[in-house]
Amino acid sequence: MFKSRKYFIFATLTSLSLIFSACGSASTETAIQTAVAETVAAQNTNQPTLTPEATLIPTQTPYQLPTAIVSTPTTSISSTNSGGASKAECASASLQDENIVDGTIFKPGEVFTKTWYITNTSNCVWDTSYKIVFWDGNVLGGGYVYNLPQVTGPGQTIPIPLVLTAPTADGTYRSAWKLQTPDGINFGVGYLNAAFYTEIVVSSAEKPEFAVTNVELYVTRDPLQGCQPANITYTAYVTFTTNGPLEFTFRWQQQDGNNSGPQKVKVTSATKKTFTRVWKIGRAASQNDNRWFQIVLLDPVYKEYPIVGFSFFCP
């Protein structure tokens, strides 16, 4: 394209030179120069302007935050955290077991760990902002307030161990405790919200008088109702509590005279020990409510405990 343009300008100038040479004057030369300049200007005007292409700067796609995943709980559970609002329905518990029986004998100043096993019977999650608070009796050398040792969900059982110290003076001591929600609601165990406690005996005697401190007797029936099968089974359960290592002897007695022989028992520490005895009654037996079981302690001391009666009726 540039080559053809040069030829066009050259031809034009040549023609003009021939024409004006015939005239042979200065004005003619000036006219020629003017014409050439106008011709070149006209050509440049018709020529398109070349504009450099713009450089494209790549842009980065903005980072997109991931959508939050929200899980929906399958059950509705209240939760109380420190700083959050607690609810009265979270204050519900039951005592399942304990490790040191009431009446256990300790030496003055002896350190021991009492553990209660408590179940969360509410629909709340107990966190560690819940507290164990001294309620009544003797604090037994411990603190007055402790934090719950671990998070406990509904239906779960938590061990609550407290390191305590027996007083230095002989006597019987009781230390009662309760739980507390983060907003200060005190609660115990069972439907009465009773305090859970330990009761100990301090003795400075070289050889304390260990003994059976309690006997509990109750009777169950199988089946609970009706008179099938032919024999109805009554089972008696007796639990002995001792305050230390002990050997003792007891006997079962029952209303029909079918008593047991002497039962010897040996325990190596303060404890609870349970025994059972079965009495089967046939459908044809007389129906009344005067049958009973009884426990008689024979050694180291003789003691008759109250009878526990039961009824037998088959309508």
Please characterize this protein's 3D structure:
- By secondary structure, this protein is mainly β.
- The protein has 3 domains: 2-46; 78-202, Immunoglobulin-like; 212-312, Immunoglobulin-like (Sandwich), CATH 2.60.40.1470.
- It has helices at 2-21, 26-46; strands at residues 78-80, 93-98, 104-106, 111-120, 124-126, 131-137, 145-147, 157-165, 171-180, 186-187, 196-202, 212-222, 231-242, 246-254, 263-267, 271-282, 288-299, 303-304, 308-312.
- The strands form 5 sheets. Strands 3, 6, 7, 9, 10 and 11 form a 6-stranded mixed sheet that branches. Strands 14, 15, 17, 18 and 19 form a 5-stranded antiparallel sheet that branches. Strands 2-4-8 form a 3-stranded antiparallel sheet, with no helix packed on it.
- It is flat and about 60 Å long.
- The termini are far apart.
- 16% of the residues are buried.
